[in-house]
Structures are given as structure tokens and as C-alpha cells.
Amino acid sequence: MADIASILNETKDHMQKAIAHLESELTKIRAGRATPQMLDGLVVDYYGNPTPVNQVGNITVLDARTITIQPWEKNMLQPIERSIIAANIGITPQNDGVQIRLFLPPLTEERRKELVKKVNAEGEHSKVAIRNIRRDAIEKIKKLQKDGLSEDAAKDTEKEVQDTTDKHIALIDKHLQAKDKEIMSV
Q: 137 with 11: CB under 8 angstroms?
């Protein structure tokens, strides 16, 4: 019976990781408000090493539409500026010789709709991941059943896996609704 518990725990753990991944992806999608997380994943060439931008300078949010990056070394201004342009995040950096300012343009209706599509695509990826985790768990349960697990125990465990799946899919939908609302509010 310890196998059933380990299958259920593993399933819940993997589904939690899928939700955590979705949350981190959603923070990168900008909803008209400046956040330091928008620059997560942005790497700068730091003396030949690809280094996250938050490790070569201070990132500060001045107001709802402005982010500043103050590099710890002046010679990092150019590489940071180049990496922002190369990342193609829809923001042109302003370099004043001391820091880089990013002014977020207001989102157009068309751009908002594109972002909502992107959010929904991320949600769909997460739902597929959750369903794949469910499929793997059910395959393991069927294998246990072949190895002598009773049919009732197998059915109960499959139902529990399905309930866990339903909970996580509902959680994904909740995240998507919140992000859609955030993007569409002007």
C-alpha cells in the first residue's frame, strides 16, 4: 500500500511544480504595470559569462510605468542596453550614462488581446502538463493492479488522482482569470 501513497504524493508534487511554473511564467507577462520580474530571464554578457541582469545592477521600479537599472559598474551600461534590445520585450532602453530607464508604453487594446492569448497559451501548456501527470499516475496504478492490487483500491486511487487533477486545473483557471482581468483593466 506504500506504493499507492508514493504515487499520490508524487502526483501532487509534480502538479504543484506545474502550477509554480505557470505562476513564474505569468509574472513575466507584463500587464501594463512595471515589475522587476519582467526582466527575469534577461541575461547580460558579464566579462564573457552570461549573467542575469539582476546580478549586475540594481533594478528599481520608480512608478507604474518606469523601471531603472543601475549597474554596479559603469562599463555594464552598454551590455545591459544591448541585451534588453535583443530580448525584444517591446521596450526601448534610455541610457543616460549613469543608469538605464525603461519606460513602458501604455498597452493598446490590440496588444492587450495578444497578451491574453499568450496567457491562455501558457495556461493550456500547464493543463497539458497536469493531464500528462495524471496519465502517468493512472498507468502506475494499473501496473500495481496487475501486480496484485485489488480492483477497489485501484479505482479509489484513480478517483483520488482525478480529484487532485480537477483541483489543479481549477487553480490554473483561477490564475488565468486573474491575469486576464489584470491585463484588460486600463
A: yes
